Amino acid sequence: MDIRKVGIVGAGTMGNGIAQVFSLAGVDVVMTDVTDAAVERGMKTISGSLDRMVKKEKLTEGQKAEVLGRIASGTELGGMADADLVIEAASEDLDIKLKIFAELDACVRPDAIIATNTSSISITKLAASTKRADKVVGMHFFNPVPLMALVELIRGLQTSDETYAAVEAVSRMVGKTPVQVRNSPGFVVNRMLCPMINEAVFALSEGLATAAEIDEAMKLGCNHPIGPLALCDLIGLDVEVAVMQVLYEGYKDSKYRPAPLLVEMVEAGYLGRKTGRGFFDYSK
Ligand code: NAD
To answer: Is-catalytic flag, 119?
Structure first.
């Protein structure tokens, strides 16, 4: 299946990054969000990101205008009716996603593929809510989308080989490296990454070392570019707790229990960079 037009639902952190990557590869894009303000924020982020590419001479001003010109945006899903592929990248909330899937199922072409960028919700469950379960698949991009090479392609129980082949081809076409993953809580990366971060929080709360020492040890000892606690601040402590809860519920295994300190910090509103405070201080 040739993918020439892509719809993207949600213009936030991930949605605008996905829109940028597809438009840079020459694909027509329609990006929506619930409010004009959210759509404008998304477009502004893309424009700023393209400006940095112009500055680094990776793009000309003319090419930047072309990339922006390929992205239509608004608050209605109707513009996606003739899309070949729609990627849902709205907030991580099952009810929101089920509502969007129902609307998409009704308004986009019956042969179009509906993908989701969810970090934790079951692809099989989302697929079952549609009349095209074989055409539903997970496309889990990583943050920041324009820079990160990986996309996990998650097959629900119902995903057809044809659907998988189409999203694999388009992932490569936009410059990403796909890895095929079976639908399961946390998929591959979050299944391993989030427990590692959680363990770092246990180590901190047990007084094994300070936050800075734990991060220094993991950077120098494991060659990680960023320590687990600084990474947690970047991802958001609330997101880390949410993924651990999905793993804990999904596998019913106590090794996935969220560290109590992590839960308490979320209760306090210390969510990491986005609130200026997490394991480290970002207030300055
Ligand atoms: P975000 O909060 O930055 O953006 C979500 C956007 O969805 C918001 O702008 C919100 O207004 C919009 N939205 C909510 N309901 C909508 C609706 N009905 N229609 C259209 N838009 C709607 O969140 P994000 O970080 O971009 O995450 C989006 C998805 O990507 C989530 O499923 C998340 O789990 C996943 N994800 C996030 C990351 C990450 O590092 N942030 C990484 C991989 C995957």
So the answer is: yes
CA-nearest of 225, 244, 235, 243 to 275 is 235
User: What domain count does the chain have?
Assistant: 2
Q: How far apart are CA 118 and CA 141, in angstroms?
A: 9
Q: Is residue 278 part of a domain?
A: no
Ligand 1 pocket (Cβ < 6 Å) reads 9-15, 32-34, 38, 89-92, 96, 100, 117-119, 140, 143, 235
Tell me the percentage of the chain whose pLDDT exceeds 90.
94
Which position among 140, 183, 198, 240 bears the catalytic label?
Answer: 140
Residue 240: active-site member: no
Nearest CA to ligand 1 atom 20: 33
Per-residue pLDDT tens over the stretch 80-108: 999 999 999 998 889 999 999 999 999 99
Which of the listed residues 34, 73, 91 should we mutate to test ligand 1's pocket, taking the one with most ligand atoms within 8 A of CB?
Answer: 91
User: What does pTM read for this prediction?
Assistant: 0.93
| Domain edge (last residue) among 138, 161, 182 | 182
Say if residue 233 is in the same domain as residue 109: no
CA distance 138 to 155: 6
Average pLDDT over residues 179-206: 97
Tens of pLDDT, residues 126-165: 999 999 999 999 999 998 999 999 999 999 999 999 999 9
